[in-house]
Structure formats: C-alpha cells, structure tokens
Amino acid sequence: MSRLFPEPHVVTLAPGQPVESLKAMDLPKGKVSVVVSNHFVRYALVPWSAALSGAAEETAYVRHHFLRVYGERAKAWSFRASPASRGAPRLCSAIDTAFLQEIKNLFAKSKSKLVSLQPELMATFNRWRGKVPAAGAWLVMAEPERACIGLHAKGNWQAVHNARGEWLALLERERHRIGGTLPVLVLLHSPQGTPSDAPGWKVERLAA
Question: What distance in Å separates the CA atoms of residue 20 and residue 55, rounded to the nearest whole number?
Fold first, then answer.
C-alpha cells in the first residue's frame, strides 16, 4: 500500500475484552480495522439456493438458517455471508447486533475511523489463504479453552466448527464427523506452542 493510501491499523478484540477496552488502546488518527475474536462470533455453512433474488432475500435466507441452528437468540444477531462458487455452501457469520453497535458508537466519538470489522476466522483466512494448497487444509484458531476449526478444500469451505474445548480433540471429532478422505495439513494459529504429538496430522504453525 502506498503512503497516499496507508493500510488500516488493525486491532483485535480478544476474549474477555469489553468494547470499552478499545478506548485504552493507542489508536491512530486514521483508519482502523477491528478483528473480532471467534469467542464473539457464531458460524454456519449455509447451503446454496438458486431461488434467491437480491440482497434482502439472501439476508432473510441466512437469518432463517441461523434461527434453525441456534434458535430464538439468533434474532438479535447481524449476519455476513462470504462469497462462494455457484452451487457451493457459503460461510456465514453472526455477531450480536448490540455488540456491533457498541463498537460503532465508540468510533463515532473517536479520532479514529472504523473502516472494517471482521470475524477472526475470515481475517486469518484472508491473511494466510496462500498457504492453503489445492488439496485443501484445516485452519485452526486456538484460544484458551476454545477453538475455531474450518476445512477449506476444493476451492470452498467444507466445514466450520467453533466451540469450547482443546483444539486437537475438536479437530479429531470434526474429522470423524465428516468422514472420507480429508486433508491432513493443519494451519494452526495459536498463542500456544505447536503440539509435539499430533499423530495423523501435519501441523504448520502460522505466525501471530
């Protein structure tokens, strides 16, 4: 990026951090991109539908899917759908609407300008997607007592799971749930060290 169009300053809202903690950060007078920890996000793979016409129908369709999966609490969420190939399921995310508005209100009173707000899964994938080979890979983002696991293969997302637990155990469970021949490459994004014993997996650690 040129000096005329500098990259936004990126900050991450980590687990346990209230929105108010952003005030204590040394934010620049300029563009800021906020990455929201997977702790605050819910994900789902929403099946393709050729019957949808326009953004309003797509949003309603995604909302209906989350309501079916997560129940009435999803009525208080805002949704975003990632692009996907025609016929393939779309990776969609949901964040509490009041939580998002709280972040926007904070920046409305700040010298900094909020230019994007991304779930951690998408921000990490966009940064490291060049490391995903044609055969596919698992992207694992491990937090203390929690992990978000996504399988990207054949050019699209094939699975996503965001839950409490130790990441290797969750990964094994997800592999058995899907079944069949699956990639063994794991791209691990974690503040913890790479495990010395992960039989059956090829673990590659991503830089923070």
Answer: 32
